[in-house]
Q: What sequence folds into this?
């Protein structure tokens, strides 16, 4: 079995996608999860382009990664300068990553028309930049931008740029179909040429403009590429990068290449959905392998056949990629998912308990809940199902009032009435908005009983429409991320009313914190 | 140039997709539009399966189609019966279409395991059914279900079923990758075998379960298939059928096959969006060729290069498929972005005006605005900067009140006070949540002045925290997507108060609609 290395650029090229935006915290969370999945390289960002990426490279050094190497991305030196004095290369090396990836121009057209220099100077820019970084003690990958278009225009020159990178010490040379316009048989042919001409490893980087990114990636690997670059769910500009989910699943299941690590494939569905949550994007239900509909069967004939033998309308067992068959139009999790999700809890894992949890989860999923990024809320559901839940407080009522004059800021006031520790607490607070006012009133009522709530703060707040067709009357799902000194946890609430959905997520967040402190457990400790 | 016939099954196989539902009227409208596009065959439905499809075949005879032939879909006769007395074949012929497509089993596994008959009887079912329909004076296409899986299992038997259909008189034999699990090089190899063994035309029918439907379709055509079956936008069960949009664009532009009719390609974007609208589904912005983001450019470097020469980051001219280039206004935007972004406006493009717009955009971006998905709001900023903006209404005040008892749903009431057309309007409305209540009260106040607001509906609502470190006191960005019969537009609002941010996005959405109608422009028309 040939090993194919997976190079994830969700955090860099993926974030070029329209509507994709990761906070620093999101980037760190996704890095951790990609490492768990067994990805070989994680391209974390482009340090020169913005301060958030530079901050990421400082913060990521504290993450205890098990397998993946973090890579910083940058460009070749500016024309007519020296690598030593180049600001971009300086910023790149300041990322202090074990590997850097440098992108350069392969296409004669790009060199003369876009960056406006000579073909010779461009070759020097590549060689100098790679050699300089190599001399600073880091491994260098070289991204040959527009390789396939450049090769078509001027094959000798395109190969010359690759050889300059190789001579400079690049260990892997990645052929990029930057504009996504190349056909699979051409990709195969050109990769085979590069394979013959070079000694370095060859990588492939495809875009999906012709809906052929997966086919092109597979064709390149079959022609000799041993590194695949792409993004989770195919995030990326225009039509996106190649979707690593599909690339990985096809390489492993259909061609028997060695990718990721043993057991990783079963986590593809979970990691795909986690990436959507972090990017605050909706899942694509028809997404191959991991989509909610990927193994959904509608219509009597197919459903019947699938009941007789699933292979009749399924190309693989959905469990291979952590997905599930769905017979009815529903979003139901299966008992096996619940079993694997509750492994870490000290509870009975008998059939009856699992069924009880499953029922609760299914009821909530049916109205729009998602637990991928809401382990705090899932924890509370498990406690309720097995009978270890106790309410820390009870809501009697709340009220929120927002008054907006013609101009200026609105005034928001929330009152909260709770039963806690046998007493009734009735508090009021103003806030910047309804959720902030509710949060303040809630804390005012509770902190005297539970002083450690002071350690807790909210780090992120996301809202998503569950049934978008209803416009502003749609149900919304609020996901809140909270943290204390040790942990970060997500909670979720769903309602037609955004304030009520926020309340549900807020009160789960507080209860999770109180249970956690009582049990003396931390999430990361599990 | 070899001609490839396009067989559209959006109305039959496409409607098996989760969430896809066409009314009879929708089906007739789409038939007309597909005929205008130059599709060769339109599979209208499965008469036996439901009364709506039978009704469709009656109604479609009255449509004045210019080019396309309408096809009815059915199965081979039941096992151990006769074709003459088969209810399914009777229903099929009652469609009175010039062509019928009959689907049958190719796979020995499917024959014995799923339909439970002998291999011999299945071959007879195919031959009898085709010959009977042929004898009734209609042309017959034969869909070989599970052909690639069946061929793998038992190649001789799979070919025998095709030959039975050919002997019965089928003029085109369509090889189906029903489960979507076959790899492109295998498709090419097996199609080439069938091409050698048969005299009839060969068609290809792919599903997208491995994200390879387009690649498989192209491979089949290059191996000798001359009919391509698929659906608009890849609608269909599980991961969908092959997207005809991508298949057609690649065949015509990348391989120079003759498809559809002259001038058709430029209508692909319009027809794709029309199909989404009829199916009541949201556009997929990253869809190859026709998606809103397919030719969108973000990030200074790319934007700069595209301004110099579009070919630098575009594989084809978007106008070829009726799409357009979009320069996204992102954090990285500079004056060149603003210049290209405002090319379509009838305004002075001098330095002073550009600087004025850029300043406004940057000020707003600094407090958390993003205009990537908010062209409606960007349009209003341009109007304000160049002095063509006029307010359609003025806010005097609003108030929102949410009352939540211990259990049950909260009650939400919004009041809105506006100055509009010289009068003061003061309205109140309840809603499912604060934004819904505000939206309702706003419309109540405005619709008597601007009746066309009734055409407008909200399709999506997204919320994102701008500065997450502040928790619930953070500023939030609300992005709303609205649509009318012709256009979809995004608007944005930012505030520490989610209700105020929603108000800002809502009122921009309404103003954009009013300006657009006044100017008689549609976004697609530019």
A:
């Amino acid at each position: 079995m040939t090993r194919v290395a997976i190079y994830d650029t969700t955090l860099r090229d993926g974030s070029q996608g329209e509507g994709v935006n990761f906070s620093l915290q999101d980037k760190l969370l996704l890095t951790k999860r990609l490492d768990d999945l067994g990805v070989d390289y994680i391209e974390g960002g482009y340090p020169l382009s913005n301060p958030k990426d530079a901050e990421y490279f400082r913060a990521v050094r504290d993450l205890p990664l098990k397998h993946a190497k973090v890579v910083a991305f940058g460009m070749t030196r500016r024309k007519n300068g020296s690598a030593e004095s180049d600001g971009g290369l300086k910023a790149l090396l300041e990322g202090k990553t074990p590997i850097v990836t440098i992108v350069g121009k392969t296409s004669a057209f790009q060199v003369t028309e876009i960056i406006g220099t000579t073909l010779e100077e461009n070759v020097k820019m590549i060689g100098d930049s790679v050699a300089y970084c190599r001399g600073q003690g880091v491994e260098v990958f070289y991204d040959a931008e527009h390789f396939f278009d450049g090769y078509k225009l001027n094959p000798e020159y395109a190969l010359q740029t690759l050889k300059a990178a190789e001579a400079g010490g690049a260990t892997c040379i990645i052929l990029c179909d930057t504009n996504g316009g190349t056909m699979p048989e051409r990709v195969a042919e050109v990769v085979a040429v590069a394979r013959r001409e070079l000694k370095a490893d060859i990588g492939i980087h495809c875009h999906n403009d012709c809906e052929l990114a997966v086919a092109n990636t597979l064709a390149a690997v079959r022609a000799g590429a041993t590194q695949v670059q792409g993004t989770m769910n195919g995030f990326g500009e225009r039509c996106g990068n190649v979707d690593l989910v599909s690339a990985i699943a096809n390489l492993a299941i259909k061609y028997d290449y060695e990718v990721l690590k043993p057991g990783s494939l079963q986590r593809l569905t979970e990691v795909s959905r986690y990436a959507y949550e972090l990017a605050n994007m909706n899942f694509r239900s028809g997404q191959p392998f991991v989509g909610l509909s990927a193994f959904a069967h509608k219509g009597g004939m197919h459903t019947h056949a699938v009941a007789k033998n699933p292979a009749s309308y399924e190309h693989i067992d959905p469990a291979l990629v952590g997905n599930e068959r769905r017979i009815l139009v529903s979003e139901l999790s299966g008992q096996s998912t619940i079993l694997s999700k509750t492994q870490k809890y000290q509870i009975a894992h008998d059939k009856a308990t699992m069924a009880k949890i499953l029922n609760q989860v299914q009821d909530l999923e049916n109205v729009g809940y998602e637990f991928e990024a809401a382990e705090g809320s899932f924890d509370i559901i498990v406690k309720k199902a097995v009978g270890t839940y106790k309410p820390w407080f009870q809501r009697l009522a709340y009220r929120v009032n927002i008054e907006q004059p013609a101009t200026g800021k609105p005034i928001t006031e929330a009152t909260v009435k709770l039963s806690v520790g046998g007493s009734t607490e009735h508090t009021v607070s103003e806030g910047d908005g309804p959720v902030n006012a509710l949060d303040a009133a809630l804390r005012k009522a509770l902190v005297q009983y539970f002083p450690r709530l002071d350690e807790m703060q909210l780090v992120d707040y996301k809202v998503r429409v569950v049934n978008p067709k209803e416009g502003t009357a749609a149900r919304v799902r609020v996901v809140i991320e909270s943290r204390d000194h040790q942990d970060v946890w997500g909670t979720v609430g769903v309602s037609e009313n955004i304030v009520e959905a926020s309340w549900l997520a807020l009160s789960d967040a507080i209860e999770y914190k109180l249970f956690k402190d009582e049990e003396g457990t931390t999430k990361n400790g599990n």
